[in-house]
Amino acid sequence: MSVHFIGAGPGAADLITVRGRDLLGRCETCLYPGSMTPTDLLAHCPDDANLIDTANLDLPAIVERMVEAHRNGHEIARLCSGDPSIYSAVAEQMRRLDAAGVPYDVTPGVPAFAAAAALLNRELTVPEVGQSLVITRAQARSTAMPPGETLANFARTGTTLALHLAINRIEQVVGELRPFYRDDCPAAVVALASQPGEQVLRGTLGTIAAQSREAGISRAAMIFVGEVLAAEGFPDSFLYSATRDRANQPESL
């Protein structure tokens, strides 16, 4: 019996993977983040599954529930919002499961930044405009950022930025980025991507903070800054170029 860490996606129940859905269907115990999990997603669980809302549980209590279910011979689903690989707190859960001798695996999910980019109808890697993406967050009442992982350091590269957990400090974010990006650099905010009440704001570094405040956005939002958000006239990718020797090169970037 195993713990299955499952990426629940950004919010919409139908954005879970087929593998994740099928795992939910066979797990006798499911732990889920109550404030982030749609009811329709839990409907995939067996009718008699033990459903545990982790919203008000601390880490030891969450791990205790998983270890106990494992000892009872249950397959266990541990739903994580978005994708487990970023900002999911699975690392510390895995560390404790290792100590307890409980096996686990991970099923990826659609991350919030990808769902937000889909709403913007934008590719975040555009030929000769931007080929890198920095995914980061703002630090407030949360774990401290490691030394060197500052907005200023990331902004010096001029690359596209995608910021989690920063909407309530958007004025500070804009202030830190202004020395490195023009005021008319394209920017966007996407809140509640794929969920009821989703909002999309398009603007510039100079306008996006005021737009966000006017719209009343205060949670579950991504901030994007970068030229790719309004790129036009860029060259086609070499991927599908007529000059490419497809006989000797795989279909990849």
Helix and strand topology:
Layout: E1 3-7, H1 18-26, E2 29-32, H2 39-42, E3 50-53, H3 59-71, E4 76-80, H4 90-100, E5 104-107, H5 112-120, E6 133-137, H6 151-155, E7 160-164, H7 170-177, E8 186-191, E9 199-204, H8 208-215, E10 221-225
Parallel strand pairs: 1-4, 1-5, 2-3, 2-4, 6-7
Antiparallel strand pairs: 7-10, 8-9, 8-10
Helix pairs in contact: 3-4
Notable characteristics:
alpha/beta, Cobalt-precorrin-4 Transmethylase, domain 1, globular, Methyltransferase, Cobalt-precorrin-4 Transmethylase, Domain 2, single chain, five-stranded parallel beta sheet, 10 strands, 2 domains
Number of structural units classed as domains:
2
Order of helices and strands: EHEHEHEHEHEHEHEEHE
Highest-level CATH class of the largest domain: Alpha Beta
Q: Which term fits the overall shape?
A: globular
Mean pLDDT: 93
Q: DSSP helix count?
A: 8
Number of strands: 10
Helix and strand composition category:
alpha/beta
| Distance, first to last CA | 39 Å
